């Protein structure tokens, strides 16, 4: 009788383990690193534009800035970090684009995803001669934009405040310049 009881207990344990494994939630996806994103699939062009979610974040000077403060301008919103090589490669492009198109209505907002932006951003701005707005990011803002799983992630916002493009991964200056020219 002991063998039968052990067999039944083992069989029941196997059934319980199978049911638990089948009902486990799926593993969360590992964030995609920028270099893993194929360039040809990383562009999302939107039609039926929706409004860009507004946010309130502090800049390096401690001043609170809202996206809605820039309404009436074409806005590039770039989610980036100082430790991200592709992000750092795009910065000179943004500096040049801002110099070239700011008088025509371009604004660029870099949203830092660094862990301690108050400590690392001011020196980074100075060292890299960044001339556009840099804000300290927060999780709630990342969530507003659908979750930022890879950086750089860049959004283009038209003069009416609508999201018109999303780019994941590094892009050449010409890509952004083409969008700017279409929207100004």
What share of the residues lie within helices? 25-40%
What is the CATH homologous superfamily assignment? Glutaredoxin
What is the fold-level CATH name, i.e. the topology?
Glutaredoxin
Query: What Rg do the Cα atoms give?
Result: 23 Å
Structural domain tally: 1
Structure class? alpha/beta
What is the H/E string?
HEEEEHEHEHEEH
- Broad shape: elongated
Q: What is the number of helices?
A: 5
Mind summarizing the main beta sheet? 6 strands, mixed
Mean pLDDT: 85
Strand content: 15-25%
The first-to-last residue Cα distance is 85 Å
CATH architecture call: 3-Layer(aba) Sandwich
Number of strands: 8
CATH class: Alpha Beta
What labels would you give this structure?
elongated, alpha/beta, 5 helices, Glutaredoxin, 184 residues, two-stranded antiparallel ribbon, six-stranded mixed beta sheet, 36% helix, 8 strands
Descriptive report:
- The chain is 36% helix and 24% strand.
- It is α/β, with parallel strands linked by helices and 184 residues long.
- The strands form two sheets. A six-stranded mixed beta sheet has the order 1-8-7-4-5-6, with helices on one face.
- Strand 2 and strand 3 form a beta hairpin.
- Helix 2 (85-101) runs parallel beside helix 5 (173-183).
- The longest helix has 21 residues, at 2-22.
